[in-house]
Amino acid sequence: MNPSRHARQTLWQAMSRRAFLGQASTGLGAASLAALGGASPTSVHAAEGAGYQGLPDIPHHAPRAKHVIYLFQNGAPTHVDLFDYKPELAAHHGEPVPDSLVEGRRFSTMTGSANGKLLLGPIEPFHQRGESGAWVSELMPYTAQIADELCFIRSMHTEAVNHAPAISFLLSGAQIPGRPTFGAWTNYGLGHETESLPSFVVMTSVTKNTTCGQIFYDFYWGSGFLPSKFQGVKFRSSGQPVLYLEDPPGIDRQTRRAMLGDLEQLNSLKLEQHGDPEIATRIAQYEMAYRMQTSVPDLADLSDESQETLDMYGPDVTQPDSFAHHCLMARRLVERGVRFVQLMHAGWDQHRSLTTELYSQCRDTDRASAALVLDLKRRGLLDDTLVIWGGEFGRTPFLQGDLNNRPQWGRDHHPYAFTVWMAGGGVKPGMNYGASDEFGMVATENPVHVHDLQATWMHLLGIDHERLTYRFQGRNFRLTDIHGHVVHDILA
Protein backbone atom coordinates (compact mmCIF):
# COMPACT_ATOMS: atom_id res chain seq x y z
CA MET A 1 0.00 0.00 0.00
CA ASN A 2 1.11 3.55 -0.70
CA PRO A 3 2.59 4.86 2.61
CA SER A 4 0.91 8.26 2.40
CA ARG A 5 -2.46 6.66 1.63
CA HIS A 6 -2.04 4.27 4.56
CA ALA A 7 -1.26 7.22 6.84
CA ARG A 8 -4.40 9.05 5.75
CA GLN A 9 -6.54 5.94 6.38
CA THR A 10 -5.04 5.50 9.83
CA LEU A 11 -5.72 9.16 10.67
CA TRP A 12 -9.33 8.86 9.44
CA GLN A 13 -9.93 5.73 11.53
CA ALA A 14 -8.45 7.45 14.60
CA MET A 15 -10.55 10.59 14.23
CA SER A 16 -13.46 10.70 16.64
CA ARG A 17 -16.97 11.72 15.60
CA ARG A 18 -16.66 14.86 17.74
CA ALA A 19 -13.38 15.86 16.09
CA PHE A 20 -14.82 15.30 12.64
CA LEU A 21 -17.87 17.48 13.35
CA GLY A 22 -15.65 20.13 14.88
CA GLN A 23 -13.47 20.34 11.79
CA ALA A 24 -16.50 20.28 9.51
CA SER A 25 -18.14 23.12 11.39
CA THR A 26 -14.93 25.12 11.13
CA GLY A 27 -15.05 24.68 7.37
CA LEU A 28 -18.67 25.84 7.23
CA GLY A 29 -17.81 28.82 9.39
CA ALA A 30 -14.94 29.75 7.12
CA ALA A 31 -17.20 29.49 4.10
CA SER A 32 -19.79 31.71 5.79
CA LEU A 33 -17.12 34.22 6.74
CA ALA A 34 -15.85 34.27 3.16
CA ALA A 35 -19.39 34.92 1.92
CA LEU A 36 -19.76 37.84 4.35
CA GLY A 37 -16.43 39.19 3.15
CA GLY A 38 -17.56 39.14 -0.47
CA ALA A 39 -15.89 35.95 -1.78
CA SER A 40 -18.78 34.97 -4.02
CA PRO A 41 -19.01 32.26 -6.70
CA THR A 42 -18.69 35.06 -9.23
CA SER A 43 -15.39 36.17 -7.75
CA VAL A 44 -14.06 32.62 -7.79
CA HIS A 45 -15.17 32.10 -11.37
CA ALA A 46 -13.68 35.44 -12.35
CA ALA A 47 -10.20 34.34 -11.34
CA GLU A 48 -10.26 30.85 -12.81
CA GLY A 49 -8.12 30.08 -15.80
CA ALA A 50 -5.49 32.08 -17.60
CA GLY A 51 -7.86 32.99 -20.45
CA TYR A 52 -10.50 34.88 -18.46
CA GLN A 53 -12.84 36.46 -21.00
CA GLY A 54 -14.76 38.88 -18.78
CA LEU A 55 -18.23 38.86 -17.32
CA PRO A 56 -20.96 37.23 -19.42
CA ASP A 57 -23.21 40.32 -19.68
CA ILE A 58 -20.46 42.75 -20.65
CA PRO A 59 -20.23 44.80 -22.81
CA HIS A 60 -23.63 46.28 -21.94
CA HIS A 61 -23.70 48.17 -25.25
CA ALA A 62 -21.52 48.47 -28.34
CA PRO A 63 -18.10 49.75 -27.21
CA ARG A 64 -16.25 52.53 -28.96
CA ALA A 65 -12.96 51.75 -27.23
CA LYS A 66 -11.35 48.37 -26.72
CA HIS A 67 -8.12 49.61 -25.18
CA VAL A 68 -7.07 52.42 -22.83
CA ILE A 69 -3.72 54.19 -22.56
CA TYR A 70 -3.71 56.47 -19.54
CA LEU A 71 -0.88 59.02 -19.59
CA PHE A 72 -1.13 59.97 -15.93
CA GLN A 73 0.84 63.08 -15.00
CA ASN A 74 1.66 62.52 -11.33
CA GLY A 75 1.84 65.71 -9.26
CA ALA A 76 -0.81 67.77 -11.10
CA PRO A 77 0.07 69.81 -14.22
CA THR A 78 -0.77 73.50 -14.06
CA HIS A 79 -3.85 74.04 -16.21
CA VAL A 80 -3.49 77.85 -16.30
CA ASP A 81 0.02 77.56 -17.74
CA LEU A 82 -0.65 74.83 -20.29
CA PHE A 83 -4.20 74.50 -21.64
CA ASP A 84 -6.59 76.94 -19.90
CA TYR A 85 -5.76 80.41 -21.22
CA LYS A 86 -7.03 83.27 -19.07
CA PRO A 87 -6.32 86.78 -20.43
CA GLU A 88 -7.75 88.27 -17.22
CA LEU A 89 -5.27 86.32 -15.16
CA ALA A 90 -2.45 87.82 -17.20
CA ALA A 91 -4.00 91.29 -17.00
CA HIS A 92 -4.25 91.14 -13.19
CA HIS A 93 -0.86 89.53 -12.62
CA GLY A 94 0.50 90.52 -9.21
CA GLU A 95 -2.86 91.69 -7.82
CA PRO A 96 -4.56 90.03 -4.82
CA VAL A 97 -6.97 87.25 -5.69
CA PRO A 98 -10.61 88.37 -5.23
CA ASP A 99 -11.92 87.23 -1.85
CA SER A 100 -15.16 86.06 -3.48
CA LEU A 101 -13.24 83.34 -5.33
CA VAL A 102 -11.48 81.85 -2.33
CA GLU A 103 -13.86 82.38 0.59
CA GLY A 104 -15.02 79.07 2.01
CA ARG A 105 -12.73 77.01 -0.21
CA ARG A 106 -10.23 74.54 1.15
CA PHE A 107 -6.62 74.61 -0.01
CA SER A 108 -3.59 72.62 1.08
CA THR A 109 -1.83 73.42 4.34
CA MET A 110 0.96 75.01 2.32
CA THR A 111 -1.47 77.74 1.28
CA GLY A 112 -3.73 77.80 4.31
CA SER A 113 -5.89 80.87 3.83
CA ALA A 114 -5.77 82.05 0.23
CA ASN A 115 -7.02 85.55 1.01
CA GLY A 116 -4.55 88.15 -0.17
CA LYS A 117 -2.51 85.77 -2.31
CA LEU A 118 -1.25 87.36 -5.53
CA LEU A 119 -2.53 86.28 -8.93
CA LEU A 120 0.12 84.81 -11.23
CA GLY A 121 -0.30 85.06 -14.99
CA PRO A 122 0.76 82.26 -17.35
CA ILE A 123 4.53 82.00 -17.55
CA GLU A 124 4.62 81.50 -21.35
CA PRO A 125 2.38 82.78 -24.17
CA PHE A 126 -0.67 80.87 -25.45
CA HIS A 127 -1.85 80.56 -29.05
CA GLN A 128 -4.96 79.14 -30.67
CA ARG A 129 -4.18 75.94 -32.50
CA GLY A 130 -5.70 74.10 -35.45
CA GLU A 131 -9.22 74.44 -36.81
CA SER A 132 -10.62 73.82 -33.34
CA GLY A 133 -8.96 76.99 -32.04
CA ALA A 134 -7.81 75.26 -28.87
CA TRP A 135 -5.62 77.44 -26.67
CA VAL A 136 -2.32 75.68 -25.98
CA SER A 137 0.80 77.15 -24.37
CA GLU A 138 4.14 77.43 -26.14
CA LEU A 139 5.35 75.01 -23.47
CA MET A 140 3.53 72.24 -25.37
CA PRO A 141 4.44 72.72 -29.07
CA TYR A 142 3.94 69.09 -30.11
CA THR A 143 0.58 68.77 -28.37
CA ALA A 144 -0.38 72.02 -30.08
CA GLN A 145 0.22 70.37 -33.46
CA ILE A 146 -2.35 67.65 -32.76
CA ALA A 147 -4.98 69.92 -31.17
CA ASP A 148 -7.55 68.86 -33.75
CA GLU A 149 -7.18 65.23 -32.64
CA LEU A 150 -7.89 66.07 -29.00
CA CYS A 151 -10.90 66.59 -26.81
CA PHE A 152 -10.06 69.08 -24.04
CA ILE A 153 -12.18 69.13 -20.90
CA ARG A 154 -11.39 72.39 -19.12
CA SER A 155 -14.03 72.13 -16.40
CA MET A 156 -12.76 69.21 -14.35
CA HIS A 157 -13.07 69.36 -10.57
CA THR A 158 -12.36 66.98 -7.72
CA GLU A 159 -12.62 66.75 -3.93
CA ALA A 160 -9.14 65.99 -2.57
CA VAL A 161 -6.42 68.59 -2.05
CA ASN A 162 -3.41 66.31 -1.57
CA HIS A 163 -1.74 64.00 -4.04
CA ALA A 164 -2.24 60.43 -2.85
CA PRO A 165 -5.94 60.86 -1.91
CA ALA A 166 -6.62 62.73 -5.16
CA ILE A 167 -4.88 60.11 -7.31
CA SER A 168 -6.67 57.32 -5.48
CA PHE A 169 -9.97 59.17 -5.97
CA LEU A 170 -9.41 59.63 -9.70
CA LEU A 171 -8.25 56.07 -10.30
CA SER A 172 -10.48 54.14 -7.87
CA GLY A 173 -13.37 56.44 -6.96
CA ALA A 174 -12.33 56.70 -3.30
CA GLN A 175 -9.73 58.82 -1.51
CA ILE A 176 -8.89 56.01 0.91
CA PRO A 177 -6.89 53.14 -0.67
CA GLY A 178 -8.50 49.74 -0.96
CA ARG A 179 -10.89 50.05 -3.90
CA PRO A 180 -10.23 48.55 -7.35
CA THR A 181 -8.68 50.97 -9.81
CA PHE A 182 -10.04 51.83 -13.25
CA GLY A 183 -7.64 49.40 -14.91
CA ALA A 184 -8.64 46.59 -12.54
CA TRP A 185 -12.36 47.19 -13.12
CA THR A 186 -11.73 47.13 -16.88
CA ASN A 187 -9.72 43.93 -16.58
CA TYR A 188 -12.45 42.33 -14.43
CA GLY A 189 -15.36 43.36 -16.64
CA LEU A 190 -13.90 42.89 -20.12
CA GLY A 191 -11.20 40.27 -19.60
CA HIS A 192 -8.21 39.47 -21.81
CA GLU A 193 -7.67 39.92 -25.51
CA THR A 194 -4.33 38.14 -25.26
CA GLU A 195 -3.07 35.32 -23.06
CA SER A 196 0.62 36.02 -23.64
CA LEU A 197 0.75 39.36 -21.81
CA PRO A 198 -1.03 40.83 -18.79
CA SER A 199 -4.27 42.63 -19.55
CA PHE A 200 -3.30 45.59 -17.32
CA VAL A 201 0.28 46.90 -17.52
CA VAL A 202 1.81 49.80 -15.60
CA MET A 203 5.04 51.74 -16.20
CA THR A 204 6.41 54.62 -14.13
CA SER A 205 8.94 57.34 -14.90
CA VAL A 206 10.15 60.61 -13.43
CA THR A 207 11.95 63.62 -14.86
CA LYS A 208 15.65 63.37 -14.06
CA ASN A 209 17.01 65.71 -11.37
CA THR A 210 13.54 66.86 -10.39
CA THR A 211 12.99 68.07 -6.85
CA CYS A 212 9.26 67.35 -6.87
CA GLY A 213 8.89 63.69 -7.70
CA GLN A 214 5.92 61.82 -6.24
CA ILE A 215 5.85 58.35 -4.72
CA PHE A 216 4.29 55.62 -6.86
CA TYR A 217 2.11 53.63 -4.47
CA ASP A 218 1.09 50.13 -5.50
CA PHE A 219 -2.56 50.91 -4.79
CA TYR A 220 -2.54 53.25 -7.81
CA TRP A 221 -2.89 50.10 -9.93
CA GLY A 222 -4.31 47.76 -7.31
CA SER A 223 -7.32 45.46 -7.54
CA GLY A 224 -8.66 46.29 -4.08
CA PHE A 225 -11.19 43.68 -3.03
CA LEU A 226 -11.31 42.13 -6.52
CA PRO A 227 -9.18 38.99 -6.90
CA SER A 228 -5.56 40.05 -7.31
CA LYS A 229 -5.53 38.55 -10.81
CA PHE A 230 -6.99 41.85 -11.98
CA GLN A 231 -4.37 44.21 -10.56
CA GLY A 232 -1.85 45.95 -12.79
CA VAL A 233 1.48 44.31 -13.57
CA LYS A 234 4.27 46.84 -13.17
CA PHE A 235 7.03 46.68 -15.76
CA ARG A 236 10.49 47.71 -14.58
CA SER A 237 12.29 50.70 -16.08
CA SER A 238 15.76 49.14 -16.13
CA GLY A 239 17.06 45.81 -17.32
CA GLN A 240 14.39 43.32 -18.27
CA PRO A 241 10.83 44.66 -17.93
CA VAL A 242 9.97 41.61 -15.83
CA LEU A 243 12.34 39.74 -13.52
CA TYR A 244 13.31 36.08 -14.01
CA LEU A 245 12.28 35.82 -17.66
CA GLU A 246 15.14 33.44 -18.35
CA ASP A 247 15.11 29.86 -17.08
CA PRO A 248 17.75 29.02 -14.47
CA PRO A 249 20.89 27.18 -15.67
CA GLY A 250 20.14 23.52 -16.30
CA ILE A 251 16.38 24.06 -16.75
CA ASP A 252 15.08 23.86 -20.30
CA ARG A 253 11.59 24.85 -21.53
CA GLN A 254 10.31 21.28 -21.47
CA THR A 255 11.38 20.81 -17.88
CA ARG A 256 9.87 24.16 -16.89
CA ARG A 257 6.61 23.21 -18.57
CA ALA A 258 6.49 19.90 -16.70
CA MET A 259 7.20 21.61 -13.37
CA LEU A 260 4.41 24.13 -13.91
CA GLY A 261 2.03 21.32 -14.87
CA ASP A 262 2.69 19.52 -11.59
CA LEU A 263 2.36 22.76 -9.65
CA GLU A 264 -0.95 23.51 -11.36
CA GLN A 265 -2.32 20.12 -10.32
CA LEU A 266 -1.39 20.77 -6.68
CA ASN A 267 -2.91 24.24 -6.74
CA SER A 268 -6.05 22.92 -8.45
CA LEU A 269 -6.55 20.46 -5.60
CA LYS A 270 -6.35 23.31 -3.11
CA LEU A 271 -8.72 25.41 -5.20
CA GLU A 272 -11.25 22.57 -5.26
CA GLN A 273 -10.98 22.18 -1.49
CA HIS A 274 -11.12 25.84 -0.49
CA GLY A 275 -12.61 27.81 -3.41
CA ASP A 276 -10.18 30.66 -2.71
CA PRO A 277 -9.93 32.92 -5.80
CA GLU A 278 -6.35 33.78 -4.86
CA ILE A 279 -5.37 30.17 -5.58
CA ALA A 280 -6.92 30.53 -9.03
CA THR A 281 -4.97 33.74 -9.42
CA ARG A 282 -1.76 31.90 -8.55
CA ILE A 283 -2.47 29.26 -11.21
CA ALA A 284 -3.21 31.88 -13.85
CA GLN A 285 -0.17 33.98 -13.01
CA TYR A 286 2.22 31.03 -13.19
CA GLU A 287 0.89 30.30 -16.66
CA MET A 288 1.12 33.95 -17.66
CA ALA A 289 4.72 34.13 -16.42
CA TYR A 290 5.63 31.11 -18.54
CA ARG A 291 4.20 32.67 -21.70
CA MET A 292 5.79 36.05 -20.90
CA GLN A 293 9.21 34.41 -21.13
CA THR A 294 8.65 34.54 -24.89
CA SER A 295 6.30 37.50 -25.34
CA VAL A 296 8.13 40.11 -23.23
CA PRO A 297 11.56 39.87 -24.92
CA ASP A 298 9.79 40.30 -28.27
CA LEU A 299 7.85 43.26 -26.88
CA ALA A 300 11.00 44.97 -25.59
CA ASP A 301 12.98 44.48 -28.81
CA LEU A 302 12.66 47.74 -30.76
CA SER A 303 14.78 46.59 -33.70
CA ASP A 304 11.66 46.28 -35.86
CA GLU A 305 10.76 49.96 -35.35
CA SER A 306 11.70 52.31 -38.18
CA GLN A 307 14.02 55.23 -37.55
CA GLU A 308 11.15 57.52 -38.53
CA THR A 309 9.03 56.11 -35.72
CA LEU A 310 11.82 56.38 -33.16
CA ASP A 311 12.43 59.98 -34.19
CA MET A 312 8.76 60.79 -33.68
CA TYR A 313 9.00 59.91 -30.00
CA GLY A 314 12.20 61.86 -29.48
CA PRO A 315 15.81 61.21 -28.48
CA ASP A 316 14.94 59.52 -25.15
CA VAL A 317 12.87 56.76 -26.76
CA THR A 318 15.61 54.13 -26.40
CA GLN A 319 16.12 54.84 -22.68
CA PRO A 320 14.02 52.27 -20.79
CA ASP A 321 13.36 54.63 -17.87
CA SER A 322 11.99 57.48 -20.00
CA PHE A 323 8.42 58.55 -20.63
CA ALA A 324 9.11 58.49 -24.37
CA HIS A 325 10.15 54.82 -24.20
CA HIS A 326 7.04 53.98 -22.21
CA CYS A 327 4.80 55.70 -24.76
CA LEU A 328 6.26 53.59 -27.56
CA MET A 329 5.92 50.48 -25.39
CA ALA A 330 2.28 51.40 -24.78
CA ARG A 331 1.60 51.36 -28.50
CA ARG A 332 3.36 48.00 -28.83
CA LEU A 333 1.35 46.59 -25.93
CA VAL A 334 -1.95 47.70 -27.44
CA GLU A 335 -0.92 46.18 -30.79
CA ARG A 336 -0.46 42.87 -28.97
CA GLY A 337 -3.91 42.98 -27.37
CA VAL A 338 -3.19 44.45 -23.94
CA ARG A 339 -6.40 45.97 -22.65
CA PHE A 340 -5.18 48.73 -20.31
CA VAL A 341 -1.82 50.53 -20.15
CA GLN A 342 -1.18 53.05 -17.38
CA LEU A 343 1.88 55.28 -17.69
CA MET A 344 2.63 57.41 -14.63
CA HIS A 345 5.15 60.24 -14.93
CA ALA A 346 6.08 62.17 -11.80
CA GLY A 347 7.53 65.62 -11.25
CA TRP A 348 4.62 68.01 -11.87
CA ASP A 349 4.40 69.22 -8.25
CA GLN A 350 5.90 72.66 -8.80
CA HIS A 351 5.54 74.54 -5.52
CA ARG A 352 8.81 76.39 -5.99
CA SER A 353 9.97 75.38 -9.46
CA LEU A 354 7.35 76.59 -11.93
CA THR A 355 9.86 78.59 -13.96
CA THR A 356 12.46 75.81 -14.05
CA GLU A 357 11.16 72.26 -13.71
CA LEU A 358 7.87 72.83 -15.53
CA TYR A 359 9.96 73.29 -18.67
CA SER A 360 11.68 69.95 -18.03
CA GLN A 361 8.37 68.17 -17.49
CA CYS A 362 6.96 69.50 -20.73
CA ARG A 363 10.09 68.53 -22.68
CA ASP A 364 9.92 65.02 -21.26
CA THR A 365 6.24 64.40 -22.03
CA ASP A 366 4.97 66.71 -24.78
CA ARG A 367 6.66 65.18 -27.81
CA ALA A 368 6.11 61.57 -26.80
CA SER A 369 2.42 62.10 -25.93
CA ALA A 370 1.74 63.67 -29.31
CA ALA A 371 3.77 61.00 -31.10
CA LEU A 372 1.73 58.26 -29.44
CA VAL A 373 -1.55 59.73 -30.71
CA LEU A 374 -0.17 60.14 -34.24
CA ASP A 375 1.42 56.69 -34.23
CA LEU A 376 -1.82 55.04 -33.14
CA LYS A 377 -3.74 56.94 -35.80
CA ARG A 378 -1.49 56.02 -38.70
CA ARG A 379 -1.65 52.35 -37.68
CA GLY A 380 -5.45 52.34 -37.47
CA LEU A 381 -5.41 51.84 -33.70
CA LEU A 382 -6.69 55.21 -32.49
CA ASP A 383 -10.33 54.58 -33.33
CA ASP A 384 -10.63 51.88 -30.68
CA THR A 385 -7.92 53.09 -28.27
CA LEU A 386 -8.84 55.75 -25.72
CA VAL A 387 -5.83 57.91 -24.83
CA ILE A 388 -6.17 59.99 -21.65
CA TRP A 389 -3.76 62.73 -20.50
CA GLY A 390 -4.01 64.52 -17.16
CA GLY A 391 -3.22 64.65 -13.47
CA GLU A 392 -5.07 64.43 -10.18
CA PHE A 393 -5.99 68.15 -9.95
CA GLY A 394 -4.72 71.52 -11.19
CA ARG A 395 -2.59 74.32 -9.74
CA THR A 396 -3.70 77.56 -8.11
CA PRO A 397 -4.06 80.68 -10.24
CA PHE A 398 -2.36 82.55 -7.41
CA LEU A 399 1.31 82.53 -6.55
CA GLN A 400 3.09 80.37 -4.05
CA GLY A 401 6.30 82.22 -3.24
CA ASP A 402 7.68 85.73 -3.66
CA LEU A 403 6.59 87.70 -6.72
CA ASN A 404 10.00 89.36 -6.84
CA ASN A 405 11.85 86.04 -6.94
CA ARG A 406 10.88 84.54 -10.30
CA PRO A 407 13.19 81.47 -10.09
CA GLN A 408 11.22 80.37 -7.01
CA TRP A 409 7.70 80.92 -8.35
CA GLY A 410 5.24 78.12 -7.73
CA ARG A 411 1.59 77.16 -7.60
CA ASP A 412 -0.16 75.07 -4.94
CA HIS A 413 -2.65 72.18 -5.32
CA HIS A 414 -5.99 73.17 -6.82
CA PRO A 415 -9.05 70.85 -6.93
CA TYR A 416 -11.66 73.34 -8.17
CA ALA A 417 -10.70 73.50 -11.85
CA PHE A 418 -8.26 71.61 -14.04
CA THR A 419 -7.88 70.26 -17.56
CA VAL A 420 -7.57 66.80 -19.09
CA TRP A 421 -7.44 65.83 -22.72
CA MET A 422 -8.49 62.64 -24.48
CA ALA A 423 -8.07 61.28 -27.98
CA GLY A 424 -9.55 58.41 -29.98
CA GLY A 425 -11.76 55.71 -28.54
CA GLY A 426 -15.05 57.39 -29.40
CA VAL A 427 -14.50 60.97 -28.17
CA LYS A 428 -14.98 63.96 -30.45
CA PRO A 429 -11.72 65.24 -31.94
CA GLY A 430 -11.11 68.97 -32.00
CA MET A 431 -13.46 69.45 -29.05
CA ASN A 432 -13.20 72.13 -26.35
CA TYR A 433 -15.63 71.28 -23.57
CA GLY A 434 -16.45 73.23 -20.44
CA ALA A 435 -14.72 76.23 -18.96
CA SER A 436 -13.48 77.72 -15.73
CA ASP A 437 -14.03 81.30 -14.58
CA GLU A 438 -11.99 84.26 -15.82
CA PHE A 439 -9.07 83.42 -13.51
CA GLY A 440 -9.13 79.61 -13.88
CA MET A 441 -10.24 79.27 -10.26
CA VAL A 442 -13.55 77.39 -10.46
CA ALA A 443 -15.21 75.18 -13.08
CA THR A 444 -18.22 77.19 -14.22
CA GLU A 445 -19.41 76.01 -17.64
CA ASN A 446 -20.43 72.34 -17.94
CA PRO A 447 -18.48 71.25 -14.84
CA VAL A 448 -17.27 67.64 -14.97
CA HIS A 449 -16.73 65.83 -11.68
CA VAL A 450 -14.20 62.99 -11.41
CA HIS A 451 -17.06 60.48 -11.15
CA ASP A 452 -18.57 61.89 -14.37
CA LEU A 453 -15.26 61.35 -16.13
CA GLN A 454 -15.08 57.77 -14.82
CA ALA A 455 -18.65 57.08 -15.98
CA THR A 456 -17.75 58.41 -19.44
CA TRP A 457 -14.65 56.23 -19.68
CA MET A 458 -16.69 53.16 -18.79
CA HIS A 459 -19.38 54.08 -21.31
CA LEU A 460 -16.80 54.31 -24.09
CA LEU A 461 -15.69 50.76 -23.18
CA GLY A 462 -19.25 49.51 -23.53
CA ILE A 463 -19.87 49.38 -19.77
CA ASP A 464 -22.78 50.88 -17.85
CA HIS A 465 -20.98 52.20 -14.78
CA GLU A 466 -24.05 51.59 -12.60
CA ARG A 467 -24.20 47.90 -13.56
CA LEU A 468 -20.57 46.83 -13.21
CA THR A 469 -20.52 46.13 -9.47
CA TYR A 470 -18.86 43.78 -7.02
CA ARG A 471 -20.35 42.76 -3.71
CA PHE A 472 -18.00 43.25 -0.79
CA GLN A 473 -18.71 43.39 2.94
CA GLY A 474 -22.45 43.46 2.45
CA ARG A 475 -22.83 46.07 -0.28
CA ASN A 476 -22.32 46.46 -4.00
CA PHE A 477 -19.37 48.65 -5.01
CA ARG A 478 -18.60 50.28 -8.33
CA LEU A 479 -15.92 52.59 -9.71
CA THR A 480 -18.18 55.65 -9.52
CA ASP A 481 -19.45 54.85 -6.00
CA ILE A 482 -23.05 56.17 -6.03
CA HIS A 483 -22.38 59.08 -8.38
CA GLY A 484 -21.42 59.87 -11.96
CA HIS A 485 -23.12 60.88 -15.19
CA VAL A 486 -21.85 60.15 -18.69
CA VAL A 487 -20.74 63.32 -20.50
CA HIS A 488 -22.61 62.58 -23.73
CA ASP A 489 -21.67 65.89 -25.36
CA ILE A 490 -18.07 64.79 -25.90
CA LEU A 491 -18.95 61.45 -27.53
CA ALA A 492 -18.37 61.14 -31.24
Quick tags:
492 residues; alpha/beta; nine-stranded mixed beta sheet; two-stranded antiparallel sheet; globular; disordered N terminus
Describe the structure.
This protein is of the alpha/beta class and 492 residues long. It has one domain (42-490). 36% of the residues lie in helices and 15% in strands. The chain has 15 helices and 17 strands. It has helices at 3-14, 17-37, 41-47, 79-82, 87-91, 99-102, 141-145, 163-172, 182-190, 253-274, 277-300, 307-313, 323-335, 357-378, 450-460; strands spanning 67-74, 126-129, 134-137, 150-157, 200-206, 233-234, 340-346, 385-390, 394-395, 413-414, 418-423, 431-433, 435-436, 443-445, 448-449, 470-472, 475-477. The strands form 5 sheets. Strands 1, 4, 5, 6, 7, 8, 11, 12 and 15 form a 9-stranded mixed beta sheet that branches. A two-stranded antiparallel sheet has the order 2-3. A two-stranded antiparallel ribbon has the order 9-10. Strand 2 (126-129) and strand 3 (134-137) form a beta hairpin. Helix 10 runs antiparallel to helix 11 (277-300). The relative contact order is 0.21. Residues 1-50 have low confidence and may be disordered.
